[in-house]
Write a structure and sequence with these properties.
Strand 6 (217-222) and strand 7 form a beta hairpin. Helices cover 43% and strands 20% of the residues. It is of the alpha/beta class and 238 residues long. It has 2 domains: 1-30; 40-236, Vaccinia Virus protein VP39 (Rossmann fold), CATH 3.40.50.150.
């Protein structure tokens, strides 16, 4: 009888060890980067913010020239809380702060410490008291559950090295019924620029599937007049 009980315990222990081993392996695989090194330049301590201002804040960049229309189509209301995920040089920080009003809030999130510092300075200089710069990580936006009404990812989703983990953190942070807007580059072989084909890892349909697999519901694709290379997708957190 004792031998039988020991055998049962041993089998359970072996099963537990196998399960733990499998879980650890799965977790390690889930953490594998989908595009290793894509964010190295933003994590460089010597990052030159002015260089990126010259790249990002110019009329030849579609999201810059269409920034007013983009903000309008987010349909933000006074009192809303929005996360600008991958805020970069802070292009949308002031327009968002104005749109959500004094009772709303803007979380300007980036993994680059120097971009976060720039947003902090923008908020101080412009007197934006409803803006919080947040240093995110490569797989977590670092906001508490149910913090925001809207998430905004502009020309940044293709920089997610760990999209499953990042999307999970975004899903947790958005309140039920809240929206997620993703703007990114059309990646169409034979049509898109060589830079896009080499830099952006997947096309619109694959990105949409990843976001839906994370639990979001697709709502619509919004047509932005100035977009030729970009697209605007709206999702909802059930």
């Amino acid at each position: 009888m004792i031998h039988s009980e020991r055998s049962i315990v041993s089998r359970h222990l072996l099963a537990a060890l196998i399960l733990c081993s499998w879980s650890a392996t799965f977790a390690q695989e889930a953490k594998e980067s989908v595009k290793p090194g894509i964010n190295d330049k933003f994590l460089d301590p010597e990052l030159d913010v002015n260089e990126w201002i010259e790249r990002f804040e110019v009329e030849t960049r579609e999201v810059y020239s269409s920034r007013v229309e983009i903000v309008e189509n987010l349909k933000l209301k006074p009192g809303d809380r929005i996360a600008d995920i991958g805020t970069g040089t802070g292009l949308f920080v002031q327009p968002f702060a104005k749109a959500v009003g004094e009772k709303g809030w803007v979380y300007a999130i980036d993994i680059a410490p120097k971009f976060v510092d720039r947003v902090r300075k923008i908020a101080e200089i412009k007197g934006l008291k409803n803006v919080s710069p947040v240093l995110g990580s490569g797989d977590d936006i670092r906001l508490a559950p149910g913090t925001i009404d809207a998430g905004f990812i502009c020309d940044v989703y293709h920089h997610f090295e760990f999209p499953d983990a990042s999307l999970a953190s975004i899903f947790r942070a958005i309140k039920p019924g809240g929206q997620l807007v993703v703007i990114d580059f059309e990646r169409i072989p034979g049509v898109s620029r060589e830079w896009t084909l080499g830099h952006v890892r997947a096309g619109k349909s694959e990105f949409r599937k990843e976001i839906e697999d994370a639990g979001f519901e697709f709502v619509e694709e919004v047509k932005i007049e100035g977009f030729e290379e970009n697209y605007f997708l709206r999702f909802r957190r059930p």
